[in-house]
Amino acid sequence: MRASLIQIAVDPDESVNSRRQRAAALVREQRGADLVVLPELWPVGAFAYQSYAEEAESLDGPTYDVMAKAASDAGVWLHAGSIVEKAAGSGSAEGSSTLYNTSLILSPAGELVSTYRKIHRFGFDEGEAVMMGAGDELVIVPLPGTVAGTGAGTGFTLGLATCYDLRFPELFRGLVDAGAQAFVVPAGWPARRREHWTLLARARAVENQAYVLACGTAGTHAGVEQAGHSIVVDPWGEVLAEAGPDEEVLTVELDPAKVATTREQFPALKDRRLGLADPRRDC
């Protein structure tokens, strides 16, 4: 399976509508890929908290409209990154729990086939943590077994996570138990914690023996410099591709069979021990 990660730059002087059109053009350029991935909250900027309410949209709003056409034109499965979702019937005031950080997954026909609301909100009682509601569902997306233009290949099951989720390994264990072979992690990760980004991406791959496709942004979000350095890691923890700090597209070939092979050759997941008693306290 061929996957392309679009590490788009967020420029505060570029309008949201202009960035949508530019992202759509980049998606169309990936024709021939099977899966294309965009970052977290790229329309508005992950740290542009003051714009969340104004730029909130429904699942079938302007970002979906533009991305659906781009996915259809390119003939790709598209993880369109995430948007500030305004839930049906909700208000848009700051602090409303009816705003969500929601990822959109579109088919090559441009149909919205899945969504994922970010479970772990970042901010430590500020920003996203208080302005958005928390998702409460693990989401996997089984892709059909075709390689673009050939009709060949095997299926691939994606597990969905977003940015700060990367710090919570239990989420990824749940996705593995549900059948995930690869994790797609769009992000707006700050440059000052870039080393954590690459370390955690590799750790999630190694401990779950799964691919990790972690797609971040370049540029700045409300003055917060972004890490860039989108990364693709294989089930053995080897880095297949890594971007630099600027806008860039990574394209890699993924082998679904490598997940099964890794898990068979080094069957660590079989040694998990669940349901242990509470810790003993000796003093």
Automatic annotation (TrEMBL):
Keyword field: Hydrolase
InterPro entries, A to Z: C-N_Hydrolase, C-N_Hydrolase_sf, UPF0012_CS
Family in the record: Belongs to the carbon-nitrogen hydrolase superfamily. NIT1/NIT2 family.
Name of this protein: Carbon-nitrogen family hydrolase
Gene Ontology MF annotations: hydrolase activity
Superkingdom of this protein's organism: Bacteria
Segment forming the signal sequence: none
Pfam families given in the database record: CN_hydrolase
Keyword hit for Acetylation: no
Domain CN hydrolase stretches: 1-256
